[in-house]
Amino acid sequence: MRILQFVSRLFVGLIFIFSGFVKAVDPMGSTFKFTDYFLAFGMDALKETAFPLAILLSTLEFTVGMALIFNSRKNITAWLALLFMLFFTPLTFVLAISNPVTDCGCFGDALVLSNWETFWKNIVILAFTLVIFSRRKKDKNQHPVWEQNLLVGFALVVSIWISTHSYRHLPLIDFRPYHIGANISDGMKIPDGAPADEYRSLFKYQKDGVVKEFDETNYPWQDTTWKYVDSEQIKIKEGYTPPIHDFSISNETEGDITNMVLSDNGYTFLLVSKNLREINESALLKIKELSFYALENNIQFIGLTASGEDAMQNFKTTNELPFEFYNTDEIQLKTIIRSNPGLLLLKKGTILDKWHFRDFPEANQLQGNLAAYSITKHQTLNINLLIISITSTLLLLLVLFSLIRIQFAEAKNRLRL
Mind telling me which residue stretches traverse the membrane in this protein (predicted)? Predict the structure, then answer.
């Protein structure tokens, strides 16, 4: 039973840490997901709580997971884990039945699960959580309370820092299909042989004042006593959906220019704003400088927004901007970059760089080869992330090894007694 308790702690703890971390690196993604749920259930008044709830949820999950792994504050942690699962397991069952939002968002964009997959996943986690809860008082913790509190405090600080940094800049790790290095055109392709959506046709015919439904196998097409009323297509099986869909660039003047932009051999700056009325005005000066820099250096600079034609023209005229705005689906814009405004650098449809409005580059930083500039910048970032990842993994492995060694040592002592 002690081994089962130990395995349960590691299993539930690692899942909580992973779930909390992938939410913490993208707090705006969790905010959008909470907003989707509130709108789906008619709770529009709660939209303002979406962001603090996103921070709270990721912090709680990450901290409980760390406490479980390190066996800190056992009683409180067991209660929190149990209450967490008792709340979300029935909730995910309701979501699986009603399906108001197709993706639960429980693992952010790192791992997309359907609502039914999420429910069954929670059933498994709940079972292991019950083991942890039932044995929370069986063994005394050998570490003093101050050490346990220090661990919990450290987990809180780390999670909040990750969320804050990712909100004020961009996600530390980008799990979305518009990450740096991704080719937008490739992301929209459907592979050969990929399954397509399957539909069932229903036909409504009337006879003697009675309307009856038929399908393709039995509709009375030869019986003239039945009069056709209506038909509909019902999707019975979901086909392959490419990672990037509903992406287009168009306006009323030039029409759709998506292929022209994505196939351009030169550099292209995309200024992204899901709503021009909500754009952060502190970035306007930088936007103007960068757009004039692009104009002087024969670099394409265009704006993407979900705002209407009048809003686009008014924004351009009011701020005396030398570039045009085009419409793109709002959901795609929110997926492309978690900043309003945000900036992308493209070449032949490949995303070379992305900037939060707080990190827009100075024009003099962009002299020379833009691709080399972006590669050098992100090589440095990737090296730093690699060092952090390796260090964290080694520390976690050392902790797990120590915990396993302690468990085996205690088991041997009990056998000797």
Answer: 50-70, 77-98, 118-134, 385-406
Instruction: Report the DSSP beta bridge partners of residue 199.
Output: 235
Paired strand residues for 205 = 212, 228
What gap in Å lies between CA 370 and CA 266, rounded to an integer? 10
What's the burial of 134, exposed, middle or buried (CB within 10 Å: 0-12/13-18/19+)? middle
Rounded Cα gap, residues 50 and 34, in angstroms: 5
pLDDT in tens, the chain (417 residues): 678 888 888 899 999 999 999 999 999 999 998 898 888 888 888 888 999 999 999 999 999 999 998 888 888 999 999 999 999 999 889 888 888 777 777 888 888 888 888 999 999 999 999 999 988 777 666 677 887 888 888 899 999 999 999 999 999 888 999 998 899 999 999 888 888 878 888 888 888 888 888 887 888 877 878 888 888 888 777 778 888 988 999 988 889 999 999 999 999 999 999 999 999 988 999 999 999 999 998 999 999 999 998 999 999 999 999 999 999 999 999 999 999 999 999 999 999 999 999 999 888 877 767 776 676 666 566 666 666 666 666 666 666 666 566 666 666 666 665
Tokens 């290095």: give the residue: 181
Can you tell me the distance from the alpha carbon of 15 to that of 60, in angstroms, rounded to the nearest whole number? 13
**Structure tokens of 291?**
């757009």
Contacts of 395 (CB under 8 A, 6+ apart): none
> Which residues contact residue 175 at a Cβ distance below 8 angstroms, ignoring those fewer than 6 apart?
22, 26, 108, 109, 110
> Is residue 341 classed exposed, middle or buried when 0-12, 13-18 and 19+ CB atoms within 10 A define those classes?
buried
Residue with tokens 């022209």: 260
Residues 6+ apart with CB under 8 A from 115: 92, 95, 96, 99, 101, 102, 104
Provide the residue type at 276 as one letter: L
Distance from C-alpha of 133 to C-alpha of 137, rounded to nearest angstrom = 8
Query: Which tokens hold the place of 343?
Result: 């900036």
* Domains of the chain with CATH codes: 1-166 (no CATH), 198-237 (no CATH), 250-367 (3.40.30.10)
Contact in structure between 199 and 233 (CB atoms under 8 Å) = yes
Q: With contact defined as beta carbons under 8 Å apart, do 210 and 225 qualify? A: no
Task: Please tell me whether the overall predicted TM-score, pTM, comes out greater than 0.85 for this model.
Answer: no
Give the separation between CA 63 and CA 375, rounded to whole angstroms.
35
* 248: Cβ contacts below 8 Å, ≥ 6 apart: 256, 258, 327, 328, 329
